[in-house]
Amino acid sequence: EVLINSFLSAYSGSDASSFELGEITSRIPVPNWSITYDGLSKLEFFKRYFRSFTIGHRYRSTFNVGSFTTNPFFDEENLDTRLNNSGDFIPRKQIASVSISEQFSPLMNIDMTWNNSLLTRLEYKKDRNMSMSLNNNQITEVKGTEVVIGLGYRLKNVKFPFSAKDNKKVSDVDLRADFSVRNNRTVIRKIVENENQLTAGQRIFSIKFTADYVFSSRLNIRAFFDRIMNTPFISSSFPTANTNAGISLRFTLSQ
After folding, report:
1. For the CA atoms of 12, 18, 20, 26, what is the dihedral angle to 10 degrees?
2. pLDDT of 67 over the 70 cut
3. Half-sphere exposure at residue 151, Cβ-oriented, CA atoms within 13 angstroms
4. Minimal CA–CA distance to 147: which of 111, 183, 185, 118?
5. What is the CA radius of gyration of the chain?
6. Coil, helix or strand at residue 43
7. DSSP per-residue letters across 55-87
């Protein structure tokens, strides 16, 4: 009961004296929210350059209690004398772990559609996940930040070069490119030993490019290129890079 409420007090920024033993009084999760604002698109300055200009923000949080059982050794009539072999008071419930997850996904997002049909997206994300194990009195803390830059453009009336005879198919081609940089860090915090150790972490840089061509109402052709480069923050891991490229066909059978 002391550890759980101390954990919640520390990561919610609340005064520890406001917590009462015996009940889990979490300030997390707070009500989730999502905000989207497009009023700037109505201003004359923005109309001059943008067809649409949207700002977005979203917050999500969860608080989870792991499996727990009622302690058979709990004695409600002798709370001050019932101790375990370690000299700790025996709680009413035996809880294995608790965890907190918070995500600003995104903390700030800007979607712009320019008058020349160019699409631009800027996004900044933050998240953290904290889990406390009551079996070994350790906290695993994972924090991440990510920056995304997206570009898009539509090429109109593009002729498909492999149509039958001289009736070449004409359709639009949607081009999309996303560049992102994400940093993840995992820290183990040992409560009894009062030690903090960085156990994992990496910087992930990714490039994603797609080109979509709608050949017909049933057939979609996509060319894609993905490259993900991983640079670890600890010496026990090594850098990696993965590349995927190719062409995919999607055929829809339903009406």
Report:
1. -20
2. yes
3. 6
4. 183
5. 27
6. coil
7. EEEEEEEEEEE--EEE-TT--TT-TTT-B-TTS
